[in-house]
Structure formats: structure tokens, C-alpha cells
Amino acid sequence: MARPEPYDPRGREAEIVAALAAQGLAARGWFALDDGEVAGFRSALLVGQAGASIWPHVRRWLDSQPADVAHPIDQWASATLNAVAAAFGARAAFPFERPYLPFQRWAVRAEGLRPSPLGILMHPVYGLWHAYRGALLFEAETAVEPPAEPVHLCDSCVGKPCLSACPVEAWSPGGFNREACMGHLQDVRGYRCMSGGCMARNACPEAVAWRYPPEVQAHHQAYFRDGRR
Length: 229
Ligand code: B12
Ligand code: SF4
Ligand code: SF4
What we know:
Oligomer: single chain
Largest sheet: 4 strands, antiparallel
Order of helices and strands: HEEHHEHEEEEEHHHH
Structural class: alpha+beta
Bound molecules: cobalamin, iron/sulfur cluster
Distance between the termini: 36 Å
Shape: globular
């Protein structure tokens, strides 16, 4: 099939956004790619989920797959975003691909977000309850305005309860102590974190309506504990 000529992707923005939304995905913001940042590409659209918006789509997709899908969310994202990319002459890039692409830095550029004390970027609407599922890379440049700096909810948070809710104090200003967290999750005492999700993340009083449902959090925790993601 003939390769489409590079075109300004924002000219088709409404179509791209609609194609993503049909799969529970949100266009999170455009950013310019610096020279050679990803060879051959000049602009990109960051793609993510708001709350658990992708979950019904992942479940439906899984119903048509063999029982032993190793990484359900990543494989669904790959199938879904590669199809959208093909329809728009783009290339899809993913947060799980190695070497890792700097998705959080891209989010800072595209959305102006700042990190919470947990390291997870804090969104003014979705709080800690969002994630990046990929980016659509385009060959042509497009006009990109710097993102308006959103309110950083952590600035006005009294007491910062996220920092004191972890039973093994895995979070500190020095970063995330992955070993302490894993040790707890692998112990029977980690039952609450395994079934209902990370207690530190759930201690955040912001964006409660966007919190992932317990079964979604349990899914993520099981993959996290088993080192599968
Ligand atoms: C490896 C990895 C981990 C490792 C190590 C994390 C680490 N801090 O080094 C482990 C397994 C411990 C982990 C845990 C978690 N992770 Co993680 N992880 C990644 C992954 C796949 C690669 C990170 C990386 O090395 N990137 C490459 C470097 C070059 O890019 P970078 O943007 O500069 O990455 C750096 C920043 O993320 C930086 N960082 C952290 N916070 C901030 C904030 C700002 C403003 C900046 C500039 C940088 C920064 O640390 C990274 C390493 O230096 C990313 C996806 C991705 N491709 O980025 C997800 C990602 C960062 N993780 C994510 C999440 C949600 C988690 C968990 C909550 C668990 C989970 N799976 O739900 C925990 C949180 C623990 C924590 N605070 O670190 C999300 C964050 C979403 C968000 N809202 O910000 C990401 C973006 C995945 C996604 N699909 O959305 N993770
Ligand atoms: S509890 Fe407070 S400081 Fe922690 S992530 Fe939520 S808003 Fe930010
Ligand atoms: S999952 Fe549990 S042990 Fe791990 S950081 Fe969160 S609260 Fe702490």
C-alpha cells in the first residue's frame, strides 16, 4: 500500500480524538519532538486513560483472546493504538517498550503536569487516577502551544495523607522503595493492598470519583507484585 504523504496531524485532530474515544482512550496533549528524539518523527499526541475508562474495552477484547494473554492491558493497547496509527499514517509508541521512552517527561511537556509526592503525575481532574497508554508519532511538524499550567492539587493538600498511609513506609522524599513494597505484597499482611489497591494512592482525597474500581486495582497489583509490569 502506498505510504501517505506527511500531513499536519492537527488538521485531522477531531477524527483522531474520535477514534481514540471509541476505545475509551483520551488524547492527552500534543508535543513537538526535538530533532532526533525519535528518528523520523516531528510531532506527537500523548494518549492515555482517564480513570478506568479503558477497562470495559480491555474486557471485551480479552473475551476474544486465548485465556493466557500475558499482559492484557499492554497487548490491548498495542492492538488498539497500532490500528489507530495505521488509519492516520502515524506510528504508535508504547510506555512498556524498551528502551523506555520518557512518557512522564512527555506528559510534562504535553499537559504541564507536576509529580505528586508519590512520583505519579497529579492531574487537575483525574488526580492520581490516570495512566499513559501510548503516543501517536507523526512525521510532520504541527503547531504546539505550551500547555496552560494546571492547578497542582498537591500544593494545597493539608497533611499529605498519601505519605503516611503505606504500612511499610515505601514512599519517602528519596523515592519509592520497591523492595519494601514488594515484600509486603508477597506477605499475607499485604492482603489489603492486593485486593483494594495501594493504600498510599487510595489515601489521596482528590478525584475520588475517578478512582479505579477495586477489581481494576487488584488486577494492577497482581501484575505489579508478580513483576509482570
Ligand atoms: C520502570 C517503571 C516503573 C518501575 C520503576 C519506577 C521508577 N521511578 O524508576 C517500578 C516497577 C518501580 C514502577 C512502579 C510504578 N509505576 Co511505573 N513505570 C515505569 C516505566 C515503564 C518506565 C520509567 C522509565 O524509566 N522511563 C524512561 C525515562 C527516560 O523516562 P522519564 O519520563 O524521564 O522516566 C523517569 C520519570 O518517570 C521519573 N519521574 C518520576 N516522576 C517524575 C515526575 C517528573 C515531573 C519527571 C520529569 C520525571 C519523573 O522516573 C523515571 C526514571 O528516571 C514508566 C513508563 C515510561 N515509559 O515512562 C512507568 C510509569 C512511570 N509508571 C507508572 C505507574 C502508575 C507506576 C505505579 C503506580 C504502579 C503501577 N504500575 O500502577 C508505581 C509507582 C512507583 C513510583 N513512584 O515509581 C505510570 C505513571 C503514570 C502517571 N500518572 O504519572 C507510568 C508512566 C506508566 C503508564 N503506563 O502510565 N514503575
Ligand atoms: S494526598 Fe495530597 S499530596 Fe498526596 S497526592 Fe493527594 S493531593 Fe497530592
Ligand atoms: S502497595 Fe501497599 S506496600 Fe506498596 S507502596 Fe502501596 S501502600 Fe505501600
